[in-house]
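Worked problem 6 (solution included).
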Amino acid sequence: MKIREADIKDLKELSLLFDAYRVFYKQNSNLEGAKDFMSERLSLKDSKIFVAEEKDKLLGFVQLYPQFSSTQLKRAWLLNDLFVSPEARGQQLGVRLIERAKVLAVTTKSVGLMLETEKTNIIGNKLYPKTDFILDELHNFYYWNVKA
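Solution. The predicted structure is:
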């Protein structure tokens, strides 16, 4: 199993994984939209995407977006997307992808990684503490959505 940075030649397989990820989060399947979105991320290089590959097949990915901490005067990375295909689960791929994300955080001299997941994401809520993430119980999380 190899963990490596994604590139444009991965677009077809990566789009399939990304669409499955979105469906996991209760979004309607939209393979064309997933392909367009991932193509834009890869071409603009505005995120970092690492993939888990075995025998020329992509089995999972992690996508991170750069942010900045004004108070700590450093970059921070938002671990926004993590997905392992159902047939590859149980092989520690999620752990390996997170470990690769941690390498990115260290090599870019960032303050660290942050993430958010639904309370109902049983797999993620077990995985993240196992990989040394700490649940923030001190802050409120707010969001605002543009109304369509």
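Discussion: The longest helix spans residues 93-107.
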